[in-house]
Amino acid sequence: MDNVLTFDGEAVEPATDVLRRGGLVAIPTETVYGLAADATNGEGVAAIYAAKGRPSFNPLIAHVADIAMAERYVTFDPLSRKLAEKFWPGPLTLVLPLKEASGIHPLVTAGLPTLAVRMPKGNVGTIIRTLGHPIAAPSANTSGKISSTTAQAVRADLGDKVDLILDGGACAVGLESTIIKIEDGKAHLLRPGGLAAEEIEKVLGQQLHRVDQRAAIQAPGMMASHYAPDAAMRLNAEDVREGEALLAFGPVRARNAERAVAVLNLSEAGDLKQAAVNLFSYMKQLDRFGATTIAVEPIPEIGLGEAINDRLRRAAAPRDGA
Ligand code: TXA
Ligand code: MG
């Protein structure tokens, strides 16, 4: 795998060089792998859309090294600042008003007056600091496919469309970041993710307003069908039918489980954090068994279960076209 490099200190310079030239680097973050370009480089950002086959109306997240870097590009209201101080670096993205003449390429925001920003955990910050600009990075997967949580999965999905893949091992969270937008002091949850809504509510002292994600305008990335494996998905399954694979959670309860062409358990102990870590790679693995359908046992809608169920519902949604 000629374009894969172990992510240690020596990888920082070559990775930054690729970004400076307007190239693409796949980066490990605590949530999922990202497909990164310099957010101020139009050629680089355009290459992201091309590699993913992504509709260009779908804006990207700008990853910053710290709050001070974010402030060069966006304006923080008091609640957003509170969240950034509490949860950054971490799996939280804030949608904030973009400053004028910010230098962020308009392809990043798809022309919106706001910018989604987040400070990821880990060594990526060193690359961002060395580059001196935020990096735009959607999840490193073909548009509509399952997000990648390992360098091998990125390589299998995107191959040579990426100049360099940094291998930082498996992602610790396994789900994309939670996206929050504060408007007039009210907190809106645009996408459930790796930071549980309850934790945000505790810090804000208010309930999050769940945005109807099919109302597409707030977060155009919220297309119904997403994260789609080749197999169909059957959620809240209480039994296993002919030809199905089983994605279990907790002690297996589904009837006829012995029928399954393959079984993977997201967490035998029923731990949602562990289930989040395993979700995308298990969906991909089960897909390889050629099952017609992946039956999924019920997952409780609490904590990270909200984001897990969100991704499962998208994977199960009717596919447009194919
Ligand atoms: O954990 C993550 O968030 C990962 C890692 C790589 O950081 N990134 C990620 O990016 O999931 P992506 O592009 O797959 O999802 C970004 C989401 C999309 O749903 C997009 O519509 C939304 O963020 N978004 C971006 N800018 C926005 C804006 N200005 N207003 C509302 N939603 C926005
Ligand atoms: Mg994505």
UniProtKB/TrEMBL annotation:
EC number: 2.7.7.87
Organism of origin: Nitratireductor aestuarii
GO process annotations (BP): regulation of translational fidelity; tRNA processing
Pfam families in the record: Sua5_C, Sua5_yciO_yrdC
Binding site for ATP: R54, N58, H63, T114, R118, S139, S147, R191, Y227
Keywords: ATP-binding, Cytoplasm, Nucleotide-binding, Nucleotidyltransferase, Transferase, tRNA processing
Function: Required for the formation of a threonylcarbamoyl group on adenosine at position 37 (t(6)A37) in tRNAs that read codons beginning with adenine.
GO cellular component: cytoplasm
Entry-linked PANTHER family: SUA5, THREONYLCARBAMOYL-AMP SYNTHASE
Catalytic activity: L-threonine + hydrogencarbonate + ATP = L-threonylcarbamoyladenylate + diphosphate + H2O
Subcellular location: Cytoplasm
GO molecular function: ATP binding; double-stranded RNA binding; L-threonylcarbamoyladenylate synthase; tRNA binding
Chief place where the protein resides: cytoplasm
Stated name of the protein: Threonylcarbamoyl-AMP synthase
YrdC-like domain span: 9-195
Family affiliation: Belongs to the SUA5 family.
